[in-house]
Amino acid sequence: MSNDSKPQIIDSAEIFRGRVFNVTVDTIVEAGITYQREVVHHRGSAVIVPILPDGNVALVRQYRHPAVRYLLEFPAGTLNEGEAPEEGAARELEEELGMVAGCWEKLSEFFVSPGFCEEKMWLYLATDLEPTRQQLEADELLSVVPLSLTQAMEMVSDGEIQDAKTIIGLLLVAPRMRSGIWTAEYPAV
After folding, report:
1. Average pLDDT for residues 5-34, to the nearest whole number?
2. Is 161 helix (H, G, I), strand (E, B) or coil?
3. Count of alpha carbons within 13 angstroms of residue 135, beta-carbon side
4. Half-sphere exposure of residue 15, counting CA atoms within 13 Å on the CB side?
5. What is the pLDDT of residues 25-62, one digit of tens each?
C-alpha cells in the first residue's frame, strides 16, 4: 500500500444531529477499496488538571450515563462554537470548580477514540488558583473531590478512577509533582 495517496471521502450522509455531537456515515475510497465508517463529529473538549494551593489535585464526581455510574474525573467540557481550547479550559474551571488560575500550561492534546469519533481533547495544567463562584449548568450535578497525587494514583491502580482523560492528566503531572521540578512560570506546589 502506498502512502502517496490520501483516502478520499466520496460521500457523507448525516444520520443524526444533536446538541453535543452529530453523526455521519462516510463513504471512503482508499487504495482502490471503498468502505463506510460511522463518524461522531464533536467540537472538542478542554480538560483541566487543577492543582490546589495545598498541592492536591481537584477532581469532580459526577454521574456519567453512558458508563451508568459516577466517575471521578478532572473538570472538562465541550468547547463552544468558535471557542479556543484555552478559553474553554478557563471557562470550565470557573464553572465547575469556582476557581480561576493565575498560571496555565498546555500539557497535551489527543483524540478520544479516533476509530469512530473526531473529538480532540486539549489538556491543561492550572495552578495559582483563586476562588470565584461556581457556575454549574442546571443539569450539572457534581461534587469537588480534592485528592493527593498519591491517593489519585492509587485510585487509578485500584480501578477507582477509570476516566481516560484523568488518567492521562495524572500520568503527565505525576513525575513533575513528585520531583518538584516546575518551570519558572509554574512554581512547585
Report:
1. 96
2. coil
3. 11
4. 10
5. 999 999 999 999 999 999 999 999 999 999 999 999 99
Angle between helices 149-157 and 164-179 (to 10 degrees): 140
Give 65: exposed, middle or buried? Use CB within 10 Å, 0-12, 13-18, 19+.
Answer: exposed
Q: Is the separation of the CB atoms in 103 and 48 below 8 Å? A: no
Residue type, 39: V
| Grid cell at residue 134 | 461556581
98: confidence class by pLDDT, cuts 50, 70, 90? very high
Residues with catalytic function: 137
All domains in the chain, ordered by first residue: 8-41 (no CATH), 43-179 (3.90.79.10)
d(CA 160, CA 166): 12
